[in-house]
């Protein structure tokens, strides 16, 4: 039996030599292949798409109506016009950004596909880059319609924050990726037992980053911790912008500096956890 | 063709045949150890697999086959020793060789919601296969998958899934193919079909294939040589016919039972 014309051996040695010379350390093609893989998945599953919009919409509507009620009861809340809804939307960037990153990774665990991927030329950095891209895509699918709902229902225009929104977004998404990276490293090392961590870890930031109240509300000792967290500056900045029409660029630079430190630490942590998973031999035998 | 190797005693296939110049091994394992605390899952094994050979890695459950393959793939780091594929140390520089390797394992699956075509497209792009569409069409035709290409992988029978896994494993026309139980859970007809494809692929491509299997007729049919493992060590090796003769048995099934139960005459060379 010959393989000629059967397709099993259609690539000759010359093809393979070319493939070898095409090998590069970081390949946009391979990142694109992974993004394509996840886009296939999203397109094949309307519940996955719906989930991206459902909870952000529910949360925004709940907080928006609460703000409306408080505004009618007291002048204080009226002054804070948009602060609640703005905080909800920005919190969703932080939370959904991390969850989008982690869930995209978890899809490989659920489908028992990680071993296949690990045996391709895909590098960890390319895999992480694809997770970042998917985090942005998933976030956009949820945030854009919900922000339009906020405009329609409560007159809050997230996009009207302009450059301030860009600064808020960059800082929040960097924090979300740093957390997501660590969560994925833990899952690699500990298996699906660490899945709950991926879902819940960001919530520890909800009280500490002062999403819905000023840092001054916290006990003094806790304020030091809050000031060490990049998102705190974003939510303080949002309130400053909405209530006082003032944008504190210095705070955003501090937040960015902290993010660089945390993200670098997350990269180191992920690398160590990945190596530890290779030592323990857990990479091949992962799954549901 | 003879297999070289042993516990801590690697020799080249060429040297075993008395040639002056040994051919470069596709897979070269040297003094490989994997310890989990006091337990040595793999205990100082050495062997090499020449290009164009199909070598069986045999042993009972827990013998260390899958751990050995995981170290050859670079997914698990050895405690000591090295596993080289096409000259690259898989613990340190696996990315130099990965585009020329592929594998099939019961521990992994293709994403179930994606169609066969989508899955092969993603893996083809990861391997840099060009032209990809033609390659997928050729593989589908040869593996009898053309009519199924747009069906989700999760809606396939076990035999169809195996063919898809084989298509994935061949998408980059690998020079080294690592197969862990490639015909497990398949009916005899489908299993025979897969074996034929593997034989043809090896013959035409000259690929090295390392095969872990519990199916002894499969081993007899496919393998030029076999490595027999027990408790992390190589306890015997040789061509299937030689082993059958040496153990005074009729088939590899009986040889396997002798080795697994510590009976009979093994000769580690």
From TrEMBL, chain A:
InterPro entries the record matches: ABC-2_transporter, ABC2_TM, ABC2_TM_bact-type
GO molecular function, one term: ABC-type transporter activity
Entry keyword set: Cell membrane, Membrane, Transmembrane, Transmembrane helix, Transport
Record localization: Cell inner membrane; Membrane
Transmembrane segments: 52-71, 83-106, 127-153, 159-184, 196-215, 249-274
Membrane topology according to the record: Multi-pass membrane protein
A GO cellular component annotation in the UniProt record: plasma membrane
Pfam families listed in its UniProt record: ABC2_membrane
Annotated ABC transmembrane type-2 domain residues: 47-273
Family: Belongs to the ABC-2 integral membrane protein family.
Entry-linked PANTHER family: DOXORUBICIN RESISTANCE ABC TRANSPORTER PERMEASE PROTEIN DRRC-RELATED (PTHR43027)
The protein, known as: Transport permease protein
Organism annotation: Faunimonas pinastri
From TrEMBL, chain B:
Keyword Nucleotide-binding part of the UniProt annotation: yes
InterPro entries reported for this sequence: AAA+_ATPase, ABC_transporter-like_ATP-bd, ABC_transporter-like_CS, ABC_transporter_ATP-binding, P-loop_NTPase
SMART domains noted in UniProt: AAA (SM00382)
Domain of life: Bacteria
Keyword vocabulary terms for this entry: ATP-binding, Nodulation, Nucleotide-binding, Transport
Pfam families cross-referenced by the UniProt entry: ABC_tran
CDD domains the record matches: ABC_DR_subfamily_A (cd03230)
Start and end residues of each ABC transporter domain: 27-256
Molecular function GO labels: ATP binding; ATP hydrolysis activity
Disordered, as annotated region: 1-20
PANTHER family noted in UniProt: ABC TRANSPORTER ATP-BINDING PROTEIN (PTHR42711), ABC TRANSPORTER ATP-BINDING PROTEIN NATA (PTHR42711:SF5)
Family (UniProt): Belongs to the ABC transporter superfamily.
Protein name in UniProt: ABC-2 type transport system ATP-binding protein
Species of the source: Faunimonas pinastri
Phylogenetic lineage: Bacteria, Pseudomonadati, Pseudomonadota, Alphaproteobacteria, Hyphomicrobiales
């Amino acid at each position: 039996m010959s393989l000629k014309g059967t397709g099993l051996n259609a690539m000759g040695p010359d093809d393979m030599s070319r493939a070898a010379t095409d090998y590069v350390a970081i390949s946009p093609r391979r990142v694109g292949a992974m993004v394509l893989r996840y886009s296939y998945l999203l397109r094949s599953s309307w519940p996955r798409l719906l989930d991206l919009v459902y909870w952000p919409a529910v949360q925004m509507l709940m907080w928006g109506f609460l703000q409306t009620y408080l505004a009618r009861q007291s002048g204080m809340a009226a002054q804070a016009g948009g602060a609640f809804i703005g905080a909800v939307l920005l919190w969703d960037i932080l939370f959904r950004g991390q969850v989008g990153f982690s869930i995209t990774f978890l899809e490989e665990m659920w489908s028992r596909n990680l071993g296949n991927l690990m045996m391709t030329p895909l590098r960890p950095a390319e895999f992480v880059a694809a997770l970042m891209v998917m985090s942005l895509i998933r976030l956009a699918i949820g945030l854009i319609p919900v922000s339009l709902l906020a405009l329609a229902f409560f007159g809050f225009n997230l996009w009207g924050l302009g450059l301030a929104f860009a600064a808020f977004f960059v800082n929040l998404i960097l924090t979300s990726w740093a957390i997501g990276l660590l969560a994925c490293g833990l899952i690699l090392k500990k298996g699906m037992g660490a899945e709950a961590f991926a879902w819940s870890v960001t919530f520890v930031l909800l009280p500490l980053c002062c999403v819905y109240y000023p840092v001054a509300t916290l006990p003094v000792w806790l304020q030091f911790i809050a000031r060490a967290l990049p998102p705190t500056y974003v939510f303080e900045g949002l309130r400053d912008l909405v209530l006082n029409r003032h944008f504190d660029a210095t705070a955003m630079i501090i937040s960015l500096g902290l993010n660089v430190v945390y993200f670098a630490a997350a990269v180191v942590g992920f690398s160590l956890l990945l190596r530890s998973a290779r030592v323990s031999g857990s990479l091949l035998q992962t799954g549901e | 063709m003879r297999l070289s190797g042993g516990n801590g005693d690697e020799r080249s296939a060429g040297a075993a045949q008395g040639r002056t110049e040994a051919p470069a091994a596709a897979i070269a394992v040297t003094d490989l150890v994997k310890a989990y605390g006091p337990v040595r899952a793999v205990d100082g094994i050495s062997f090499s697999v020449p290009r164009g050979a199909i070598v069986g890695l045999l042993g009972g459950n827990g013998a260390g086959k899958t751990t050995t393959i995981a170290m050859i793939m670079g997914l698990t780091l050895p405690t000591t020793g090295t596993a080289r594929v096409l000259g690259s140390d898989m613990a340190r520089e696996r990315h130099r060789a990965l585009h020329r390797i592929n594998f099939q394992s019961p521990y992994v699956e293709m994403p179930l919601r994606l169609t066969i075509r989508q899955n092969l497209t993603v893996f083809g792009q990861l391997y840099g296969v060009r032209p990809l569409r033609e390659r997928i069409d050729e593989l589908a035709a040869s593996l009898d998958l053309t009519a199924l290409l747009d069906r989700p992988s999760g809606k396939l029978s076990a035999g169809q899934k195996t063919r898809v896994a084989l298509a994935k494993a061949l998408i980059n026309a690998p020079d080294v193919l690592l197969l862990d139980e490639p015909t497990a859970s398949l009916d005899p007809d489908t299993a025979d079909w897969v074996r034929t494809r593997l034989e043809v692929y090896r013959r035409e491509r000259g690929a090295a294939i390392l095969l872990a299997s519990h199916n002894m007729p499969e081993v007899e049919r496919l393998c030029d040589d076999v490595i027999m493992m027990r408790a992390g060590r190589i306890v015997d090796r040789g061509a299937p016919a030689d082993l059958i003769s040496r153990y005074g048995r009729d088939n590899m099934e009986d040889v396997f039972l002798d080795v697994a139960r510590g009976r009979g005459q093994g000769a580690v060379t």
